[in-house]
Amino acid sequence: MDEISMASKELAKGAKMLGKHCSSCGFPIFEKDGLEYCPNCSACEIEIKGDSKESEKQLKKINENNISKNDDKLRIINRKIEYLFSKLDSEEEIGRIHEITSSIKTLLKIKKYL
């Protein structure tokens, strides 16, 4: 999901976009039911305003959604890495070997930050 769609979805759920940005990913921070959160990642600090049970439920839901998104991303990256290793195994042209290994390195870097 792209950033605009993600932000639109949060606004449609009744969240308010704040003038703050996530210190981890740079995405705008949203607020709903006393919670400030980043819908893009789980690395951002989440603040609970007040002491309501509803806020705790929202926080749990946000964390579960972020974990699920990251799991999906990791599965995709792992599949691509496996695919590239299978291609690397049969490749004999040095230029293609370099392209494949470079792609694997890039995917491993991305995986590290998820």
From TrEMBL:
Annotated InterPro entries: SSSCA1 (IPR009563)
Name of the protein in question: UPF0148 protein
Domain of life: Archaea
